[in-house]
Amino acid sequence: MSILEAKEISKVYTVDHRNITVLNQVSLKVEVGEFVVITGSSGSGKTTLLTLISGLDQPSSGQVFIDQQNITGASEDDLAPFRNSIIGFVFQSYHLVPSMTALENIMFPAELLGDPNAAQKARQLLKRLGLEERADNLPSQLSGGEKQRISLCRAMINQPKLLFADEPTGNLDSENGKKMLSQLVELKTEQGATLILVTHNPEIAQASDRVLTLKDGRLSE
Amino acid sequence: MIHTHFIIRQLSRSSKQAVVFILCIILSLSTLTAFTGFSKSVNRSLLDDAKKLHAADIIIRTYDKMSDGLEKAVAEQVRLGRVELARFYEFNSVVRAPDKQKSLLSRLKVVEKGYPFYGEVVLLSGLSFHDVLTPGHVVVEKTLLDRLGLSVGDPIKVGFTTLTIGDVVLSEPDRPMNFFSFGPRVFISSQDLNALGLLQTGSRIRTVYLLKSKDDAQTDALTNLFKQAAIRGQERVNTYQTAGSRIKRFLDNFIFFLKLVGIFILIIAGVGIHGTLTAFLKEKEQTIAIMKTIGATNRHITLHFMLIVFLLSLIGTVMGILVGTVLQRGLAGLLADFLPPDLRLSIVWSGVFENIVIGFSVVAMFTFIPLYRLREMRPVMILREETPRSAKRWPLYASGAMFALFFFGLVFWHMQDFRFGLYFVAGVGGLILITYLCTHLMLWILKGWKSRQLVVRQAIKGLFRQGGATKTIIITLTASLSVIFSIYLIEKNLDATFIRSYPEGAPNMIILDIQPSQKEAFTQMLDQKVRFYPLIRARILAINGETIKHDSERRRRRDNLSRVFNLTYQNSLLEYEKIIKGKGLFRKDWTEPQVSILDIVGDMRKMGIGDTIRFKIQGVPLEARISSIRTRIKESLTPFFYFVLQEKTLGAAPQTVFSTLRMENDKIGPLQTKIVNRFPNISVIDVSSAVQVFGRLLKRLSKIIRGFSILSMAAGVLILISAVFATRAQRITESVYYKILGAKKTFVFRVFTLENIFIGLLSGFLALIVSQVVAFLVCRSVFEIPYHLYLTSCLLMIGATLLLIITIGVISTKSILERKPITYLREQPDG
Question: What is the ipTM score, two decimals?
Fold first, then answer.
C-alpha cells in the first residue's frame, strides 16, 4: 500500500517574466515503511520536489496523494492536521523556533494536537537521544548536531507515518552526521514510519531501500 | 489551546520591537486623550463652576438699551422679592493720567453693588471689593498703573470725570485677566456712570443684568418668564448653565484646532502602528513558517499573534491615557492665562472610556492587515525567500473602507461641522496621497541612479531592503514635516505682513464713538482731511421673508447672522472694493430702500440681486432690497462693511461715527491724549500696538499647536527604529560580508548613515515642497497677503530633521556595526 503518490507533478517559476521549469511531470510512488533517497546534483530540484510532495508548496500541475488523500490545492488549514500528525520534517538548517527552548520546540507539535503528555513524551525523546540536559537551552545555545537531534525529536513526537528529511546531515561533520543518520533510521524503524530523504551524499543513499535521481527536472530510478 | 509560553517568548525575544509598538500606541492616543480630556474637563468645570463664572443664576445680555418689556418684567420680580439684581455695563474708553499727559484705551466695567453674586473679585490689598469700589473710586489692573505711571491713591480721568484709584484687581470671576482685550480692566461704581458721560447714542456698550434667584427651583421658570419678555435676537436670557462665554468660545475654537492636530497625529501614529507591527511580524516570519510546517493552523497562529497585539495594545492604551492625562495637565499650564482663575481640572471618565474605545479601534484598524497577512505566509518560506502575496483583495478593500469610515466618523464626531470635517479629511487624504506619489517617484529615480561611488550604490540598495519600510518612513516623516513647516510658514508670513511690518499706508488708529455733532470740531483739531464712516448698529430679522433662527445660527463655528452688524451709508465704493454683481452700488430705477452686500455675507446665507433683507435698527424694522454685491480686491486694514445702504435710508437713524488715521508711531500717544482731553467720549484704538499684542498671542498659540504637531514626527522616527530592528538580520549579514571582503567599519558606518541621509533628505525636501505650496495657497488665497519663502529657516529645519534621523539611525545600528564576522559565522545557519 502506498503512503505517498505523486502524479506528473511539475513546478514552473516565473523570474523576470521568464518561465523556468524546475520539475517536469515527475511521478513517484512510495510504499509504507520504505526508506527512499532522492538524490541529484545541486540545483536539480531535489528540495523543490520535497516541498511539493510534503505539501509545503503546491505544484504548477499534477497531483499529490498522501495516505490516499489528494492534497493538491488543499488550503493551508486543511494541510495543517496532516503536517501535525501524519508528516514529520527534518531540515538541513534545523529550523527550530529561536525563541523557544529545546524542550518547548519538541513539545510544540504535540501541544498543537492537544496531547496532555506532550512534556513527558518530549523528555523521553530528549533522553533517548542523550540531550536531557539541554532541555532548557535555547537553539542559539546548542551545537549543530544537538540542534539537528532536537529537530529530529520534534519531527517524531507525534509518531508520523511519513518523515521528510532535507539534507539532514548537510551541516554536520561526518561523525555527527553518521550519528544523526543512525538515530533517524532507528526511530523511523521503531515507529514504522516511511522516510523520504533528500541528499547528494552517496553513503546515505547506500543505506536506503531505493534511490531516485533527479536530473533536468525528471526523476529516474 | 492558548500557548502562554509561546506568547511570552515572542514578546521577550522581540522586546525592543514590542516597546516601539507600544510607543506608537501611546503616541497615537496621548495627544487626542489630552485634547479631548482637556476639552471635556474644561467644559465640565465651566458647568460645575458656572455660577461663579457667570457670577449669577440668570444672565441677561444686550448691546442695545434694555427693552421696556424686559425691564418691567425684571423690576416686577425684584419687587416681589424673587430675584436680586446687579447690573454692569462694559465698554472701551480711553482713560488719562491727569498730570502726566498719558492716556490708555481700557476696558471699563461699571458695576452695581451686588456684583458678583457668586465668586469674588480679588484685590491686591485683600480688602472686600465693594468696600473699595465706592463712588469716586476705581479699581484697576496693574498694567494700567505701569503704563500710565500711576499708583494706588492717584487720580485718573475717565470720560468727563476724575476718579481715585482705590486698589489693584488680581482676578475677577467672569474673565481671565490675560484674556485678549484691547486694554486693561477698570472697575467703576455704577453711581459714577452718569458722571462719566460716556453712554452716548450708538456707543457699543455691553449691558448685563445679573440676577440671583431666591429659590433655585424657580430659576428656570423665571428665565422663561424673562425670555418671553425679551426681544429675540436682541436680548439674550440664559441661566448660568446655558450661558456661553467668551472663554468657552475661545477654548472651543482653540481646542478645535488642537483636536485637528490630535487626529492627524493619531493617523500618522496609526501608520506607525501598522509599520512597527509589520516589522515585528517580519521578524517572526521564520517562526510562523516553522509553526505552519509542524502543523499549526492559521487560526492558531493568528489567535496567538492577536493576543500578543492585544496585550501590547492594552499596555499602550493604558499608558497612552496616562501620558495623555499628564499632557492634559501640561496643556492646562500652557493655557493658564486664558483659563478662569478658579477652574478645577479633573479626569472625566466618560472621556477616558471614549479614548479606550478609540485606542482599541485604532489598533484594530491598523493591525488588521498585518495580522490578516499571516494567513498568506506559506511554510515553504523556511526554505526560500518569498514575499507573501495576497490571494484575496477584498479584506484589503474592506479594511480600507473601515478605516475611511472610522476616520470620517472620528473627524465629524470631534469637529461637529460637516463641511470643515470634509475639508480636513480631504486635506489629510490629499496630503498623504501626494506624499505617497512623490515618494514613489523619488525612490524610482534613486533606484535608477548608477553612482560611481560604492558607498552610494550600497546605501541606495539598502533603501530597498525587504522589510526596510523606507516608503512608510518617508511618507510619515514627510506628512508630519509638511504640517509643521506649513504652520511655521503661514505664521511667519502673517507675522511679517501684519505684525512686524505694519502695512505701509494702512491706518494705524481707529477713532470710535464720534458723535455726528463732533465731526467738524474733530476735523479742525486734526487739521487734516478726515474720512468719517457712519455706524448704525442693526440686527437681521429675516432674509426673503424667512425669519433668522438665532439658536441654530449661533451654533455655527464661523460668522453667523444672529449677531449685531454695523451698517453704514455711502454713495460710492470704499477703497479696495469692486462690484461683482449688479449695475453700480445702487439702482436708480428702484424706489424702495436698497442695500449693497459684501460677497462674504454669502458664506452665511446664499443671497442674490433683488433678494430682501429685513433689518431691525434700534427697534425699528427696515426692509431693503439687495442692489449689488461687492468684493474686496485686497485684504488690508482699511474699513469695510458687510451692508452699505443709501444716505436717504439711514441718514436719520441713531448713529455714531468712526474714522481711521495713519500716524507715525511716536505721535499716536500724544494725539490720543489730545483727542480724549478734548472729546472724552471718543475712544482711540492704537491698531499697530493692538496688533502687536494680538501677534504675541497668535505666536504663543501657534507655538502650542506646532509643539504638538512635532509629536507626529515621532511616529516616523519610531517606524525608522522598528525598520532597523526588522532588517537587523539582513544588516548584520551585509555588515559581516562587507567586513569579510575587506571593508573597514567606517565603510559600513558610511553606508548605513548615507541610507538615513537619503531618507532624511527625501522627507525634508518633499515636506519643503508640499509646505511651500500649501502655505503659498493659504497666504495668497485665504489671507491675500504677499508670500515669502523663508528658505533659510526651512533649510535649518531640514538640517535639524536630518540630524535627528542620522542620530537615531546611528544609535539603532551601533550594535550591528560592533558585530564581529566570526560571531556571526559561528551562529550560521541560525535557529
Answer: 0.75
